[in-house]
Design brief:
globular, mainly alpha, N-utilizing Substance Protein B Homolog, Chain A
Length: 133
């Protein structure tokens, strides 16, 4: 499986988590498998675990880069993409940050609006630049 496909799987679980905070990852994986949506690959599993386990920390990072916005006002698709990308940028060392940002923008284009994609690109660019300091 390509990493972009694995990211999309992790995104789907991350998005679902926003609406079902009480459902844990193993149960979501089981539902996805039973409904024949997908079998979670190892990379998708890693990303989803990071998002589930570190959501509060990830939201803090995202919030620190929001200008004139509160995280609660972000579209849910955008929030799920940002959580996933920030988790990968901060905790997965073998993926170049530029690849993560590009993949996040592509997911946003697929599941959200065009202007959301430019917002995601800008915010993640700020995250990457701050990491380099």
């Amino acid at each position: 499986m390509k990493r972009s496909e694995a990211r999309e799987q992790a995104f789907i679980l991350s998005f679902e988590r926003i609406f079902n905070m009480d459902t844990e990852l193993p149960e979501m994986k089981e539902i996805a498998s039973e409904s024949e949506l997908f079998e979670l690959d190892a990379f998708a599993q890693t990303l989803a675990e990071l998002v589930f386990d570190k959501a509060e920390e990830l939201d803090g990072v995202i919030s620190s880069f929001l200008k004139g916005w509160k995280i609660e006002r972000l579209p849910k698709v955008v929030l799920a993409v940002l959580r996933l990308a920030v988790a990968e940028i901060n905790y997965v060392e073998d993926t170049p940050d530029a690849v993560v940002v590009n993949e996040a923008v592509e997911l946003t284009k697929k599941y959200a609006l065009e202007e959301d994609a430019s917002f995601v690109n800008g915010l993640l660019g700020s995250v990457v630049r701050s990491k380099a300091k």
